[in-house]
Amino acid sequence: MSHIADLLIDWYRQGHRDLPWRRITDPYRIWISEIMLQQTRAQAVIPYYERFLARFPSVESLAAAPEQAVLAAWSGLGYYSRARLLRRAAQQIRAAGAFPGEFAAIRELPGVGDYTAAAIASIAFGLPHAVLDGNVLRVVARVEKDGSDIGSGQTRERFRSIAQEWLDLRAAEPPGIFNQALMELGATVCLVRKPLCLLCPLSQVCRAHATGTVEQLPVKLRRKEPVRLEGVLLIIRNRGKVLLRERSASERRMAGFWELPTPEQLPGAHILAAIGTVRHTITHHHYTFQVAKALAVRSRQPFRWFRPRELSEIPLSTTARKALRLAGVL
Questions:
Q1: Domain assignment of residue 283, given as a range
Q2: Which one of 34, 246, 264, 313 is the catalytic residue?
């Protein structure tokens, strides 16, 4: 087991992706990065991470910010409940007077689960808690040649214990380095499809590699069928402004966000010409929207006119952002 940790850390120290959150041990900045990295690729996160920290450089500035300002800074990253919980957690940290330095206390922050708490605890505070995300599950399943269902809580706990054993047997090394090495391996080498086994530092100890079963693992039995949805988004302009609709507080998803209206929301709109198509995916939901220029006169709530330069100051839905870029407004 110790051999696995030795191989992994030695490989990581020879070279890895230069990500901005790997140059620091500041718990606030590590926390922001880990929340952003939930369900989002690292390369996509970098510009949002840098802009967000430029706007909210401290826990205090984030805690004091209006929710709409936080959502606007988060706009485009998706899964917007993360931003709301981030702000709530910042307010709790400010009230406590300092960022919590123990795993259990970090875990109690809104929006923080076992994985995020382990990442912050190990990287920022050097605490020996192994992380378990999709990348780590994949590495463990293949190294151990374990075909158990990773959708099962029991399997995940067993895999977490295995990762913890690997970490504990390299106690002389900073736990954060081990965790980052393990996640880096899953993100860059032990890929879902076409894993790069010839470049993998663990290939000599990987049981799935030895038996030619790498691409059959991990196993996830409960897969949700994709849901495909279609619609139309209207680009309505007047004197250089564009018409948007605000989602109400009672709407289940993305309350308070601004989006482009649909023909159903503006039954009197007159469609002039098709512009093109935009697509967007949220988990297993796949959206396809036809984007069209239209005419309408509407200024009452929940509709409002915005100048293009104002769009960066409001929480704008990702589908609206894509459609407005397609239309040349952004």
A1: 227-326
A2: 34
Q: Number of folded domains in the chain? A: 2
Same-domain status, 258 and 137: no
Three-class SS state of 288: strand
Q: Is residue 241 part of a domain?
A: yes
144 assigned to active site:
no
Both 205 and 245 in one domain: the answer is no
Contacts of 127 (CB under 8 A, 6+ apart): 102, 103, 121, 175
The residue out of 216, 242, 272 marking a domain boundary is: 216
pLDDT along the chain (330 residues), means of 10: 83 93 94 94 94 97 96 89 95 97 97 96 96 96 96 95 89 86 96 96 96 95 83 94 90 85 91 94 87 85 92 91 92
